[in-house]
Every structure is written in structure tokens, then in C-alpha cells.
Amino acid sequence: MLVVVNPPKVTDLDYINFILASQRSFTCTEAARSHPADEGDGGPSHDAFTRLLQRMPQDTEALWSEAKPFVSGHGGVLVLDDTTLDKPYSRKMGLVTYHWSGKHHRVVKGINLVSLLWTDGEKLVPTDFRVYDKPFGGRTKNEHFADMLGRAKERGLNPDCTLFDSWYSSIDNLKLVRSLGWHWFTGLKSNRLVNPDRSGNRAISEVEVPEEGRVVHLKEYGMVRVFKTVSKHGDVDYRATDDLSMDLKRRDELQSKGWSIEVYHRGIKQCCGIERAQVRKEHSQRGHILLSLRVFLRLEMNRVTKGMSWYEAKISIIRGAIRSFLIHPTIHLLSTA
Questions:
Q1: CA 20 to 30 Å from 309, out of 64, 204, 319, 335?
Q2: Do residues 80 and 115 make contact, with C-beta atoms less than 8 angstroms apart?
Q3: Residue 118 pLDDT > 50, yes or no?
Q4: What whole-number distance in Å separates Cα of residue 288 and Cα of residue 277?
Q5: C-alpha span between 291 and 49 (Å, rounded)
Q6: Are 258 and 79 in contact (CB under 8 A)?
Q7: Average pLDDT over residues 212-224
Q8: What is the pTM of this model?
């Protein structure tokens, strides 16, 4: 018996373009309402978009295939960090649990996203991501760290340096980056043990570190160069690298490039609706996240080629509709007398 399967009514590009155009509402219901062919004309229902999210692949190959042309195989830096996607009102929603939020400076309800970003100082290109799901029996952040860097190596990336914060600066992670043949630059906690002069290990906070940095032996790893900065508020920050020849200019350059992932996190939250999926199933949440990151890639390449910010690109899509409304307003103050 021949079974005829109807083709899906919507594609990933339909959803991507909807997110690009939408300013605040990123639901499947609104996606269906906004479609050029409404449901009465045989257009898609909100269920069609829900099914689209559920059938999205559970790997990141679709993102990489689009990002690859904009990434140089040699050079640039890889920046790895995680962020919490706020879900304060969620109930029984897949992947949602409690995580520390740097934005709120407290533990909040949300989804933790671990991202790998490539940048040359100009382009911000997401190449890979993982959803941290250890609370549900999934992998740890360090396992995601190793998985994404190993995948980057397989994809032919050879960055000048790999950047990450102190949370990922375990000895195992540092040795992993070394085994890949890459340099690393990371933050260190003040209690990390180093040996500056073969007199024994002690906390880095007890070691004199001049402005130009100091070469010390990091316990269980080897020789590294450590830098120390003190903010105007008195906060002390330690950075370290396996590149023993690194100078202050290079350190400042890498710190600036490392900050780019914070800019990226702001972009995916403010312009791509990554936190706004109103779906319960884990598979659908993952699908929405994947498509939202592909939205960011389009906004970013538009910024690079046309010099148009993400925010200007978004508002320019609806400016014509606003102008038409101003010429012919459809909402009036009508008397009820």
C-alpha cells in the first residue's frame, strides 16, 4: 500500500525569517498569524510551526554549515562561555532548572547555554553550542567544553588562541587545549597554586605579579605567564596563558576579544528571541535555540557587510508598516455616547 506523506507546510527559513521580522512576540501562534498565507487560505497553523521545532536536528551541523564560509581556518580566536536564558515564569518546561545568572547576580530559573564563538575582532560567528542538561542526566559543562573544542579541531579550525573564564580553567581543560596544539588564555581564581621561584606552591594571591606579568609554574600543568589587574574599585583579576612571550598589548587585545562573547549573548537575547519560546517539550526548546542562533548569524553578517546594527536591521523591517499606519491610522478614539 502506497502511503503519501504530505510535505511540511513550513520550513526552517520560514521560522528564521519570522524571528528576524518579529520585534517582541516569538510564539508559534504569532508565526502562523504573520504568515503571508493565513490558515483560512490553506496556510500553516501554529501546529505546523510546533511540529517544525520538534523535527529540528539535535546536532549543530545546520549552524556550522552556515557559519563555515565566514570563519578562517587559520587565525582568529575561539571564545567559550555560557549564559542563562531566563525562564522566570516557566512551569514543567523542558531543560529549565536553576542556574547562576551573571545578569541578575543570583540563582534564577532558566536554560543554560554553552557557546563557542569565533572572532577575528570584527565578525562574531557562532560555530557551536550545547545546552547544559546535567540536572536531567546529561553532560557536564566540562564535557561540553571538551566536546566542542574537539569538534572545532575536526572541522579544521586552528585559532591563534582559545579564550575562556576561570570556571573552565581546570588542569584537565588546560591540558586538553594544549593537546589540540592551541594556545589558551583564561582567568584564574586567586587561590590557584603556583610556584614562582622553586620555593614551593602557594596561592597566586600571595605572589608578586608585576604589570608586565610573571612566568610561574602552575601546579600539575607547567610554566605559564600570569597577569594581574586591579580595578578602580579594588577588585583583583588574574589571567594566565601558556604563551610565555605574551606582552601587555597582546593581553589587552585578547581580553577585548574575549568580551565579544558578552556582546554576542546580549545580541541573541535582545534581537533573536532566544529566551522567548513558549514551548514545553525539550526537543522544541532545542529547535528554537538552534534557529535563533542562525538568526543571529544573519544579523551579524548583515552588520559586517552593510554596516547596519542588529537593532537598526530589526526595526527597518517594520518601518514601512509604521509609516503606512501614520498615513492611514486604523485605530481611532471613537465616542461611546
A1: 64
A2: yes
A3: yes
A4: 7
A5: 12
A6: yes
A7: 96
A8: 0.92
16's enclosing H/E stretch is helix 12-21
Grid look-up 551541523 returns 61
Give percent of the chain with pLDDT exceeding 90: 69
C-alpha span between 229 and 255 (Å, rounded) = 12
- State the cell numbers at 229: 589587574
248 Cβ contact partners less than 8 Å away, ≥ 6 residues apart: 211, 212, 213, 227
